[in-house]
Design a protein that fits this description.
single chain, 146 residues, mainly beta, six-stranded antiparallel β-sheet, globular
Length: 146
Protein backbone atom coordinates (compact mmCIF):
# COMPACT_ATOMS: atom_id res chain seq x y z
CA UNK A 1 0.00 0.00 0.00
CA UNK A 2 1.24 3.50 -0.68
CA UNK A 3 0.28 6.82 0.82
CA UNK A 4 0.10 9.89 -1.41
CA UNK A 5 1.44 13.09 0.03
CA UNK A 6 1.48 16.80 -0.69
CA UNK A 7 4.81 18.57 -1.35
CA UNK A 8 6.73 19.02 1.88
CA UNK A 9 7.35 22.38 3.57
CA UNK A 10 10.65 22.92 1.73
CA UNK A 11 8.92 22.64 -1.65
CA UNK A 12 10.16 19.16 -2.50
CA UNK A 13 7.46 17.08 -4.09
CA UNK A 14 7.61 13.40 -3.22
CA UNK A 15 5.38 11.54 -5.66
CA UNK A 16 4.45 8.75 -3.27
CA UNK A 17 5.52 7.51 0.11
CA UNK A 18 5.72 3.80 0.68
CA UNK A 19 5.06 2.35 4.07
CA UNK A 20 8.08 2.98 6.25
CA UNK A 21 8.31 -0.67 7.24
CA UNK A 22 6.39 -0.13 10.46
CA UNK A 23 2.88 -1.35 11.11
CA UNK A 24 1.29 2.00 10.25
CA UNK A 25 1.42 4.35 7.23
CA UNK A 26 2.81 7.86 7.50
CA UNK A 27 1.48 10.91 5.69
CA UNK A 28 1.85 14.64 5.26
CA UNK A 29 -0.79 17.05 6.59
CA UNK A 30 -3.59 17.08 4.00
CA UNK A 31 -7.39 17.19 3.91
CA UNK A 32 -8.93 14.29 5.77
CA UNK A 33 -11.69 13.88 3.18
CA UNK A 34 -9.03 13.51 0.47
CA UNK A 35 -6.88 10.98 2.29
CA UNK A 36 -5.67 7.99 0.38
CA UNK A 37 -4.82 6.29 3.66
CA UNK A 38 -6.79 3.10 4.07
CA UNK A 39 -9.03 2.91 7.13
CA UNK A 40 -7.12 0.56 9.37
CA UNK A 41 -8.06 -0.34 12.88
CA UNK A 42 -4.89 -0.23 14.91
CA UNK A 43 -3.79 -2.72 17.52
CA UNK A 44 -2.03 -0.26 19.83
CA UNK A 45 -3.18 -0.30 23.45
CA UNK A 46 -1.94 3.16 24.48
CA UNK A 47 -1.76 6.56 22.77
CA UNK A 48 1.94 6.53 23.64
CA UNK A 49 2.74 3.14 22.03
CA UNK A 50 4.61 2.57 18.76
CA UNK A 51 5.72 6.15 18.08
CA UNK A 52 8.53 6.09 15.49
CA UNK A 53 11.78 7.82 16.49
CA UNK A 54 11.71 9.71 13.16
CA UNK A 55 8.50 11.32 11.88
CA UNK A 56 9.13 12.81 8.43
CA UNK A 57 5.35 12.86 7.95
CA UNK A 58 2.34 12.99 10.23
CA UNK A 59 1.29 9.56 11.54
CA UNK A 60 -2.47 8.89 11.54
CA UNK A 61 -4.02 5.76 13.01
CA UNK A 62 -7.72 4.92 13.17
CA UNK A 63 -8.51 3.62 16.65
CA UNK A 64 -12.26 3.15 16.18
CA UNK A 65 -14.65 3.72 13.31
CA UNK A 66 -18.38 3.42 12.71
CA UNK A 67 -20.83 4.99 10.27
CA UNK A 68 -21.05 8.29 12.19
CA UNK A 69 -17.84 8.34 14.20
CA UNK A 70 -14.09 8.00 13.65
CA UNK A 71 -11.45 8.23 16.36
CA UNK A 72 -7.84 8.76 15.32
CA UNK A 73 -4.49 9.06 17.00
CA UNK A 74 -2.41 11.66 15.18
CA UNK A 75 1.30 12.06 15.90
CA UNK A 76 3.31 14.92 14.44
CA UNK A 77 6.67 16.54 15.08
CA UNK A 78 7.28 20.03 13.74
CA UNK A 79 4.58 19.65 11.06
CA UNK A 80 2.58 22.54 9.64
CA UNK A 81 -0.05 22.89 6.94
CA UNK A 82 1.20 24.28 3.65
CA UNK A 83 0.85 28.06 3.35
CA UNK A 84 -1.98 27.83 0.80
CA UNK A 85 -3.77 24.91 2.46
CA UNK A 86 -6.87 25.02 4.70
CA UNK A 87 -8.89 22.11 6.06
CA UNK A 88 -12.58 22.41 5.13
CA UNK A 89 -14.08 19.17 6.38
CA UNK A 90 -17.58 17.78 6.01
CA UNK A 91 -17.35 16.34 9.54
CA UNK A 92 -17.15 17.96 12.96
CA UNK A 93 -13.82 17.35 14.68
CA UNK A 94 -13.07 17.34 18.38
CA UNK A 95 -9.36 17.21 19.22
CA UNK A 96 -7.55 16.66 22.49
CA UNK A 97 -3.83 17.38 22.72
CA UNK A 98 -2.13 14.73 24.86
CA UNK A 99 1.55 15.62 24.43
CA UNK A 100 3.55 18.44 22.85
CA UNK A 101 2.08 21.78 21.83
CA UNK A 102 0.36 23.13 18.75
CA UNK A 103 -1.24 26.18 17.17
CA UNK A 104 -4.37 25.89 15.04
CA UNK A 105 -5.12 28.86 12.80
CA UNK A 106 -8.69 29.70 11.85
CA UNK A 107 -9.67 32.45 9.43
CA UNK A 108 -10.41 34.82 12.33
CA UNK A 109 -8.16 33.61 15.17
CA UNK A 110 -5.33 31.35 16.29
CA UNK A 111 -5.70 28.83 19.11
CA UNK A 112 -2.71 27.59 21.12
CA UNK A 113 -2.98 24.09 22.56
CA UNK A 114 -0.92 22.49 25.31
CA UNK A 115 -1.32 19.03 26.89
CA UNK A 116 -4.86 18.51 28.15
CA UNK A 117 -6.39 21.25 25.97
CA UNK A 118 -9.24 20.31 23.65
CA UNK A 119 -11.02 22.04 20.82
CA UNK A 120 -14.25 21.43 18.92
CA UNK A 121 -14.05 22.33 15.23
CA UNK A 122 -17.47 22.47 13.54
CA UNK A 123 -17.78 21.09 10.01
CA UNK A 124 -16.62 23.55 7.34
CA UNK A 125 -14.69 25.73 9.81
CA UNK A 126 -11.64 26.49 7.71
CA UNK A 127 -8.48 25.83 9.73
CA UNK A 128 -4.86 24.81 9.38
CA UNK A 129 -2.03 23.57 11.57
CA UNK A 130 0.22 26.58 12.07
CA UNK A 131 2.83 24.91 14.31
CA UNK A 132 3.59 21.77 16.32
CA UNK A 133 6.43 21.12 18.74
CA UNK A 134 9.57 20.40 16.71
CA UNK A 135 11.64 18.56 19.34
CA UNK A 136 9.11 16.01 20.64
CA UNK A 137 6.06 14.21 19.26
CA UNK A 138 2.78 16.09 19.40
CA UNK A 139 0.08 13.51 20.12
CA UNK A 140 -3.54 14.28 19.30
CA UNK A 141 -6.74 12.33 19.85
CA UNK A 142 -9.16 13.38 17.10
CA UNK A 143 -12.83 12.44 17.11
CA UNK A 144 -14.73 13.03 13.85
CA UNK A 145 -18.51 12.97 14.09
CA UNK A 146 -21.62 13.97 12.13
Amino acid sequence: MSVRSKPNREGEAPAELERDGSEFPIRDVQPRRQRDVESEMTTIKSLFDAIPAELPQELVQTLLQSADLRIERIVSRGRVSHDDFWYDQDENEWVLLWRGSARIQFEDRTVELKPGDFLNIPAHSRHRVEWTTPNEPTIWLAIFYC
